[in-house]
Amino acid sequence: MEDAHVAIPDFDVEKGLSLFGVFDGHGGVAREAVAKLVSERLPRTLKNLEEYKAGNFKERVGDRQDEFLWSADGRVALRKAKRKANGALLAAEAPRLRALLRNKAGRCAFSLHCKTDPIPLSAPSWATLLTGQRAAVHRITSNDLDSLLSTDSQGRLLVQPSDCLCTPVRSASCFASAFSQAKRQKLANPASPFPPTLFHFLSQNGCSAKLLNVGWPGVPQLCADARRPEFAKMHIVNSQAEELDKAVEEMLKLFVHFVQQLCLQVLALYTHSVDLAGHVHGFSLDVPEYLESIEHFDACLGRLLDALADRHEDWLLAITTDHGGGAAKDMSKDQWSLFVEDCKCIHKGLSQAGSQGVHGLQDSDTHNTRFVILSGLNARPGEICPPPEAIDFLPTLLRHLGLASDSLPGRSRGLRRD
Ligand SMILES: [Zn+2]
């Protein structure tokens, strides 16, 4: 890390003053960023101070810098400075994630360029990740799970095709084609069984599993099938939005406890905290609250990694996300009108029209890009090229567990034993 400096020989010609300074930037990226930012702003701040003009500025200049750094503008500027200091893709202060990606332990396979299949919304995307089947097969086409899902007399989970009214004209730009397809299927077949999920494969093979869920209840809803006994083992936390951060902490404690006390083969944790911060404040690298939610997740991940490291067992830690997202402020007029006016299916179940951060457009890279990180002795270190598809996630998990995935269209990616 580097110090910053300022050297302006003719700072104030009238008063015959020069300005020289060194700013201590040692102690991490955050300090380096603060040092650089303060060195850039100090000359202007000093000259604009009434106290400077009166010749008495020593204390005020420090106060003024502090006020700026704690303001909303200051936090955004600091993020940008940090990004410059990092020279990295991720602006968040997420040392554990970064250490994984840099492969310091030599046991991380990853791709930051995975795509959704094809709808960048939570329920369709999780349906693909959990079943290993494409959207055209599982037929979850919106977040409106209450009207899409039902159960038959045997307790099987059924999918009702969506009755979305998107016009085919927009099919190239959004996921209307998937809805039109679902509509056609609805005429031919009113409801079809939802395909088996990860938990179904596990219970079929006698594996024990537990799902810990924080916030949005879509994942347990998609896995809810009365025939599947593992559902009874799920621990679900229905958090209020403002309690999500606290709930993540509690769930991580439970998670560590389960790893240490129980003989479980699969532990799954879903958290909505980062997506929620993205919706409330914007999914963008210059939005401090969004980056802070990633940093909080990173701290939770660190505790999990430490607990796993103590076990000396062949665990595979698989981290992924269902979709990306953008900030409404960064969207073009055309993109916004497509999002709000033309593609109302995006808002089925839960409207995003009033959100600062949004996702759902199939052709937007910021919306449809996901990541996968696999860490463990069985991960083949380095970037997975080409990026794995969403349908590959489940076969990869099953492969690690030594279970067959022949019935699935995807394949295991990123493991030594692929
Ligand atoms: Zn979302």
TrEMBL record:
Gene3D superfamilies: Alkaline Phosphatase, subunit A, PPM-type phosphatase domain
Parts of the chain that traverse the membrane: none
Coiled-coil segments: none
Source organism superkingdom: Eukaryota
Protein's UniProt name: Protein-serine/threonine phosphatase
Natural source organism: Durusdinium trenchii
